């Protein structure tokens, strides 16, 4: 248990850094790759059917942009996600690998296929003029790319769905006889896949509309054609993802549904859930206003409307991912593992036997609490159980969260982290002495602005001093 190195991310914290990388990745993977491949396949097909050279050229220019975004930003942030999750929560990745190993492996193969066909489609586009058999072949490359991109999303969505609704998998005997099918066909997989598929297409259409505006400065006829085409796709997708979204929402556990408004804004504004409604309505209006005016009056609508539409879409996507991650709290895998990597089933045992005792990367002399090592033991407890969501001084700073408390009230608060007031926090895990050690450390950093290793490690830690 807890046999991974401890890595603390000062100031920004793990949550923020991960969210930044992951949301950037979603913009690109869903827009430039999954949705982008589908809409560009569609416009290439129309160009072939109508022998429309201009539409063919415009589609190529959009593909060029998507290609750069997918291979540069998409690939880098994708690797970033792997590094982040391995640092933040290796225990959760371990659990997911045990359940999804082969599916993830297949996903990696399919991702390679995706990248090869993207390259092939893009690089052979120009050498396959309209009206030649080579063009029909080039179109098939695009189709393969689109299918492969969608397939990678389907697998990742199954894993994300599993983390929120492990469903019947929890009833199977793990690890001896896990029900892999129940994990894959977890209740939110299909609805969330439908939801993501249609908003990816809509989002890619919004990106394509902005790019089309830029690429058709001297050709308003072509601009009109592009806006009508991508605008129709965008507007047609809205009812579809709303429908799948409602079905998806329906699968969430009640406790997660209860956190929705808080997830949409910050906790300090939670007393005003109407702010979250204003935010959603505002962002949706930005998207609709841009899309409808570009569709209805393509020749007269200024670029700023396309930019507004794009920012509105990014806001909505970012909000969706943020809320989805927030409402899963206090779990990383619902009902199975807490956000800080402690398995729910292990809590009673660890409360009795001690948490630090099982922490392989904590030096042995801090694995049981004594009056001399108390502060340092408390620091390890903080790092292992709280730094997933808190920093000492930066974002969601623990120091400001405990202002005005003394050691005793901190001790009491730690005993009720998972109370109805803060249901998004996992309970503290460990013995009474460990809870005292954490309270002592938190009280120490509350009073002292700067941590001194000397204070934390008193004279009795010979191994550590080496
Ligand atoms: C899953 C994420 C998560 C973990 C893990 C977590 N917290 Fe929190 N904690 C939060 C959030 C979110 C808030 C609310 C911040 C705000 O008010 O905006 C919070 C608030 C708090 C507060 C203030 C509570 C109040 O009533 O205002 C305290 C104290 C606190 N955390 C202590 C801890 C301690 C100690 C640990 C480790 C044992 C811990 N937290 C672990 C997410 C977490």
UniProtKB/TrEMBL annotation:
Signal peptide range: none
Annotated TM spans: 16-42, 62-85, 105-123, 144-164, 197-215, 227-249, 275-296, 303-320
Keywords: Heme, Iron, Membrane, Metal-binding, Transmembrane, Transmembrane helix
InterPro entries recorded: Cyt_c-like_dom, Cyt_c-like_dom_sf
Domain Cytochrome c, chain residue ranges per copy: 375-442
Keyword Lipoprotein annotated: no
Name assigned to this protein: C-type cytochrome
The species this protein was found in: Methylophilus aquaticus
């Amino acid at each position: 248990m807890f046999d991974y190195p401890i890595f603390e991310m000062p100031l920004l914290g793990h949550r923020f850094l991960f969210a930044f990388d992951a949301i950037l990745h979603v913009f690109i993977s869903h827009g430039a790759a999954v949705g982008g491949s589908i809409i560009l396949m569609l416009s290439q097909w129309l160009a072939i059917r109508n022998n429309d050279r201009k539409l063919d050229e415009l589609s190529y220019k959009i593909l060029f942009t998507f290609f750069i975004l997918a291979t540069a930003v998409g690939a880098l942030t994708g690797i970033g996600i792997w590094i982040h999750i391995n640092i933040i929560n290796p225990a959760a990745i371990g659990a997911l690998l045990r359940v999804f190993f082969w599916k993830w492996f297949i996903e990696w193969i399919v991702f390679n296929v995706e990248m090869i066909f993207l390259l092939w489609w893009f690089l052979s586009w120009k050498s396959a003029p309209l009206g030649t058999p080579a063009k029909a072949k080039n179109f098939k490359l695009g189709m393969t790319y689109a299918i492969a991109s969608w397939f990678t999303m389907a697998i990742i969505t199954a894993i994300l769905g599993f983390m929120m609704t492990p469903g019947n998998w929890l009833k199977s005997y793990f690890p001896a006889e896990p029900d892999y099918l129940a994990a894959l066909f977890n209740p939110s997989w299909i609805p969330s896949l439908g939801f993501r598929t249609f908003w990816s297409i809509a989002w890619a259409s919004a990106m394509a509309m902005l790019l089309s505006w830029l690429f058709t400065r001297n050709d308003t006829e072509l601009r009109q054609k592009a806006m009508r085409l991508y605008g129709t796709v965008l507007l047609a997708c809205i009812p579809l993802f709303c429908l799948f979204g409602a079905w998806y929402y329906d699968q969430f556990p009640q406790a997660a549904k209860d956190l929705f408004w808080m997830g949409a804004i910050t906790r300090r504004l939670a007393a005003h859930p109407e702010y979250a409604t204003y935010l959603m309505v505002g962002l949706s209006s930005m998207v609709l206003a841009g899309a409808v005016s570009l569709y209805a009056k393509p020749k007269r609508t200024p670029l700023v409307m396309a930019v507004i539409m794009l920012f509105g879409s990014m806001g909505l996507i970012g909000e969706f991912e943020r809320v989805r991650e927030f409402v899963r709290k206090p779990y990383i895998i619902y009902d199975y593992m807490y956000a800080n990597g402690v398995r729910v089933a292990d809590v009673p045992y660890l409360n009795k036997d001690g948490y630090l005792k099982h922490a392989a990367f904590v030096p042995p002399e801090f694995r049981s609490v004594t009056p001399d090592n108390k502060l340092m033991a408390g620091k390890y407890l903080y790092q292992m159980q709280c730094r997933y969501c808190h920093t000492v001084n930066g974002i969601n700073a623990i120091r400001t969260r405990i202002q005005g408390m003394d050691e005793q009230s901190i001790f009491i608060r730690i005993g009720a982290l998972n109370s109805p007031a803060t249901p998004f926090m996992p309970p503290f895990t460990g013995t009474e002495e460990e809870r005292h050690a954490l309270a002592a450390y938190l009280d120490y950093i509350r009073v002292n602005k700067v941590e001194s290793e000397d204070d934390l490690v008193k004279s009795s830690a010979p191994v550590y001093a080496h």
